[in-house]
Structure formats: C-alpha cells, structure tokens
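Figure 2 data, in text form.
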Amino acid sequence: MDSGFLGFSIAGLIVGFIVGMTGVGGGSLMTPILLWFGINPATAVGTDLLYAAVTKCSGVWVHGRNRNIDWGITGWLALGSVPAAALTLWALNSLHADTQALNAVIKTSLAYVLFLTALAILFRSRLLAFASRHAGDRYSLSPRALNGFTLLTGVILGAMVSLTSIGAGALGTVALFMLYPFLATRRLVGTEIAHAVPLTLVAGLGHAGMGNMDWPLLGHLLIGSLPGIYLGSHLSGRVPDNVLRPCLAVMLGLIGLKLLY
C-alpha cells in the first residue's frame, strides 16, 4: 500500500475510533485532516460527505431494527435539507470555474461551522438542561408549527452540511433535542443518523458530479474507519464524557482558528 494512502487509512482509523467512542466528530475531524494532508478543500468536503453516508448506513440499520428512529421527524428534516442541499450545490457550481473563490468560501464556512460545533459539544449538557426546563413551551406549539421549525432546521443543516460536510452530528442532535426534549435519547440519535444518510448521500453525489471526489481516497478512509468505529464503540463509556467532550471541543476550535488565520 502506498505510504500516502496508508496515512489516510490511519486517519480513518483514528476518526472512526473517536466517532465510536463519542458519537460525534466524524466530519468535524475528517475534513480538516484531509486539508492537512493537502487535499483540495472542495474534494475534501465531497469525499467526506460520501464517507459519512457509507459509515452511517450501518447505524441506520441497527437503529431501525431497534425501533430507535422517528421516521416522521426524519421526513420533515429531509423535506427541508435535501432541497437546501441541492440549492447550495447549485450555488457552489456557479463558483466551480473559479477554484480559488470556491476553496475560499468552503474554508471560511468550515471554520465558522467548526466553532459552532465546538460550542455545541462543549455546552451540550447545559443546552439539553435548558431544553428540558422549557419543554412545555415547545409542546404549546401546534403540530404544524413544530413541523415548520423541524423543516427550517433541515434547511439550515442541508446548506451547512453541503458547504462544509459538518453539522449533521453535533449540531443536528442539539437542534432536535431543543425541538423534541421529550424524545428518548436513543431515538434522538437514531433519528439524526437516519436523516444524515440521505442528506450526505445527496450532497456527496452532487459534489461527485462537480468533480469534487477522490474515489481511491474514499476507499482507504473506509478501510481504516470501519474497524475504528467498531473498536471505539466497544470502549465507549470507559473514558469519562466530561474529559472527552472538552478535549474534542478545544481541538475543533483550534482547527477552526487555523483555517481562518
């Protein structure tokens, strides 16, 4: 195996391990790592999107069997996110001839979404506690209003994920809990993963159609990440959550700073 591709497989192993242990951090870590390896920003985002779609398919299968997916919420999210992804890809395609402008837009957007993700991870417990305290306010909304807010969340996630490959995990889970605080955590996670698969698949195929895809790179990332996720999931809970999450949040924040400056 070529030494460069061996490095990508090791990167996939590390990211998969972290995702298995924490449930977050896939796109947040993989895209910046690919940039560090010198991969073009647009190619890094496109490759990472299909990487996410493939790795999360197994999660949908497991959660589906355990009935941990609320397909109604998934549908409303996808109704907003998939068209938003298509519109974002159309806008990116208009910049495709100007590679420098396209890469600048992606890197800047990536930096800000990394900051948001770091904050969501760092203050996750406080955000969830706030949502629980004000759960009654959410349920005073009519079902139509709640569906509308869910659709709007999908629109935001669709644009964000298509532009940066980040946001469906940590930000999507927090947003869902804010809207549906009475939803069991396992169903919250399952619903988020079920929504992430069609979103990342559509966005990834759109980037592939624009030429923003490295298929051999994707294969080597998967070679490392699949066993990494397996190992990490078996060690989940061994390292305290109050240690893992702050470390991950600080790392993402520093990566965001580096992308900006």
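Caption note: The two ends are 35 Å apart (CA to CA).
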